[in-house]
Amino acid sequence: MSIIMGWLGSSIDMNYFRKHFDLSGNTEIMHTGIAVMAFHDAENTETKLFHYHRSIAVCDGVLHDAGNIRSGLEWKYPFHTDSSTELFLYLYEECGTAFFSMFDGEYACIIYDGHSGKLVAARDKSGTYPLYYGFDKKGGIVFASCRECLAEICNSVHEFPAGNYYADGVLHPIAEDSGIRHHVLRRCV
To answer: Is the pTM of this model over 0.85?
Structure first.
């Protein structure tokens, strides 16, 4: 089972992480207010966590047409893996949250934007991959792909609605592709 999790707030409980997750190589702690975590079992070898400069992404899922998207970005970004997570982060760096409406796929992802210090989360329109959210005791938002991960630290747990993304404290619907995708790929090639 793969689990992704992101927590932004002043009350991150590292004991919780140590109790429930293996911290060896799968967790990034930026400072005492941010934790982004990815865990995968031995059968799933794809990297679920990737960082670039100060930003971090954890994703479960895939983007359609990833090969063409990647080739359109290789001139600018230093790809290190074949991971979809790396592609997600570079697209976010390039386009911000607009990229969610530009590209199709099945995914749940959490991105820590190191430039703004905020978390962004998204779930594709089909809702293939699970994502949940809740608020810790001090009001910090927590996202996870497993409801049980949030049960101990949040007063209530909610399913993240499919076809939406969270940014700047607000849930936004993922808009239909407006043709920007082709412009972005042309600009990158």
So the answer is: no
